[in-house]
């Protein structure tokens, strides 16, 4: 039987050659990235604010590009106010709001919101707690009724609390075996002198329904909250809905209680490497871990805001240079850390950095995971990139596109109701003026390479290098690459995050 062959050998070779040439051409075209376009501006509509008779502030940003509205109740209290012994209290409190009211069960709340085609979420950060509703504008009245019931009439059912605590503890038990998660938890106490915001197994077990009710009563008040509307809604309608549904929000005076930071060890100031970059080197030994986490953590003694002579807040002088530096170092796929660790060497699926802003402190950190065998090499690469920022200015042809990443992300946020609400909430949470929305892009674009280098010199030295992984695998390589370093090693099983020294 003769098999039909539509192509001769010469035709196949020719086809392969053509495909090879096309691939080479494509590679050549993509090897050199295109030049970045000129910076664009983003104009944010005015934020209209009004205070209701009960003291609740209503902030509205009208944007009619889509018939969608996001409503966010921003409570200016978060993990900062819960204390080390009750770590996780703020998050448990806000999570329980959607787990049942005096008239609805958790299932009924979820089903009714889903029927309206909306979403209702809640969560707590370090500075704030939020309840966020997103729904089509023609369903807003019905959805607001559910949101108000959730905020004003929580049941704080003991069964739901027990279930939530059980789920939280199960999640912690699993996550604390993951190198990256464990590294973040250790850094919160070891480097930043804070408690883990999500709680520890010890603190979660201690939290009672009375603790939940007390935190709610003290913090969920009209004078400590702002109701934010963004999207297809006028300020007139927003104020009307706020008056209709949230006029009964507690008018109790909010008394912010300052929680003392965790004790700082006396040896925290001892720098142990020749460059002065690394203050301490900590290894959390996690035997048989699939990977190792490598991070650098550094608290900065300046927060998100500066107070002017009129006692009004303004953005800290370090805010914009820090944002641009972060974009260069670890903010995205083309950042230096990701280029060096992932793209050039294939040692990780990703590497990055970030700044977490507080009122009076800023937490800087890098993050990446790699094979245990390459943990020491990656640690060396991270240190080299931080030293590079300290020693030299960012070239202009690198600085321009890294700024565009920031302004592009900002512009995309403004195009969604949720992103816009988040940007407004960030300013409100730090009592910053709404005019900062329109000054963000110009402020980013005016940051210079000299400012970035100056920030790095003043703020990135003297941090903690933390590796979580199987120490037996990278121990020898670590000693070779960091021969003059004092390395503290703690067994993961001996960790106790409820104690200042981390050890049982």
Overview of this protein structure:
With 504 residues, the protein is an alpha+beta fold. It has 17 helices and 14 strands. The protein has helices spanning 9-31, 89-96, 106-115, 140-152, 158-175, 179-190, 201-206, 209-219, 235-246, 319-330, 336-343, 375-391, 396-414, 417-429, 436-445, 449-459, 471-481; strands at 48-51, 57-62, 68-75, 119-124, 129-136, 225-231, 278-285, 292-300, 305-307, 313-315, 351-357, 362-370, 463-469, 487-491. Helix 2 (89-96) crosses helix 8 (209-219), helix 10 packs across helix 16 and helix 12 runs parallel beside helix 17. The radius of gyration is 26 Å and the shape is globular.
- State the share of residues found in helices, binned by percent: 40-55%
Radius of gyration: 26 Å
- Mean pLDDT, as a whole number? 89
Major sheet: 6 strands, mixed
Task: State the strand order across the main sheet.
Answer: 1-2-6-3-5-4
How many helical stretches? Answer: 17
Globally, the shape reads globular
Structural class: alpha+beta
Low-pLDDT parts are 1-7, 24-30, 262-269
Total strands? 14
Give the end-to-end Cα distance, rounded to a whole number of Å.
Answer: 79 Å
What percentage of amino acids are in beta strands? 15-25%
């Amino acid at each position: 039987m003769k098999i039909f062959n539509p192509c001769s050998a010469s035709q196949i070779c020719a086809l392969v050659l053509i495909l090879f040439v096309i691939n080479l051409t494509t590679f050549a075209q993509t090897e050199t990235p295109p030049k970045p376009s000129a910076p664009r501006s983003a104009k944010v509509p005015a934020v209209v604010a009004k205070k209701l008779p009960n003291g609740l502030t209503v902030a509205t940003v009208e944007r009619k590009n889509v018939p969608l509205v996001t409503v966010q109740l921003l409570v200016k209290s978060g993990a900062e106010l819960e204390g080390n012994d009750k770590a996780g209290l703020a998050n448990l409190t806000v999570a329980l709001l959607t787990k049942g009211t005096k008239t609805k069960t958790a299932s009924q709340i979820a089903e009714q919101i889903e029927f309206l085609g909306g979403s209702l979420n809640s969560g707590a950060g370090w500075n704030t707690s939020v309840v966020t509703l997103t729904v089509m504008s023609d369903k807003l009245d019905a959805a607001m009724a559910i949101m108000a019931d959730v905020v004003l009439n929580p049941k704080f059912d003991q069964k739901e609390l027990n279930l939530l605590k059980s789920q939280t503890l199960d999640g912690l038990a699993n996550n604390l075996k993951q190198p990256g998660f464990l590294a973040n938890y250790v850094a919160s106490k070891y480097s930043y002198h804070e408690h883990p915001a999500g709680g520890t197994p010890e603190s979660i077990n201690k939290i009672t329904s009375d603790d939940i009710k007390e935190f709610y009563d003290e913090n969920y008040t009209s004078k400590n909250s702002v109701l934010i509307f963004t999207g297809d809604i006028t300020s007139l309608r927003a104020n009307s809905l706020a008056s209709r549904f949230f006029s009964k929000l507690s008018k109790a005076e909010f008394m912010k209680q300052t929680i003392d930071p965790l004790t700082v060890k006396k040896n925290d100031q001892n720098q142990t490497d020749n460059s002065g970059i690394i203050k301490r080197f900590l290894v959390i030994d996690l035997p048989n871990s699939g990977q190792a986490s490598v991070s650098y953590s550094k608290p900065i003694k300046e927060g998100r805001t500066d107070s002017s002579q009129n006692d009004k807040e303004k953005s800290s002088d370090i805010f914009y240079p820090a944002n641009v530096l972060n974009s260069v170092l670890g903010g995205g796929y083309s950042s230096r850390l990701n280029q060096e660790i992932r793209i050039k060497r294939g040692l990780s699926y990703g590497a990055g950095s970030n700044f977490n802003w507080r009122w009076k402190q800023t937490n800087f950190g890098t993050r990446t995971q790699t094979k245990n065998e390459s943990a020491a090499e990656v640690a060396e690469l991270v240190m080299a990139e931080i030293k590079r920022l300290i020693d030299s200015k960012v070239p202009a042809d690198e600085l321009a596109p890294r700024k565009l990443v920031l302004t592009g992300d900002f512009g995309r946020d403004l195009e969604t109701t949720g992103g816009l609400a988040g940007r407004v909430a960030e300013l409100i949470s730090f009592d910053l003026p709404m005019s900062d929305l329109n000054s963000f892009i110009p402020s980013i674009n005016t940051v210079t390479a000299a400012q970035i280098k100056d920030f790095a010199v003043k703020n990135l030295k003297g941090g903690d290098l933390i590796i979580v992984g199987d120490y037996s695998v990278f121990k020898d390589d670590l000693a070779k690459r960091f021969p003059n370093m004092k390395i503290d090693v703690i067994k993961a099983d001996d960790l106790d995050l409820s104690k200042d020294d981390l050890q049982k």
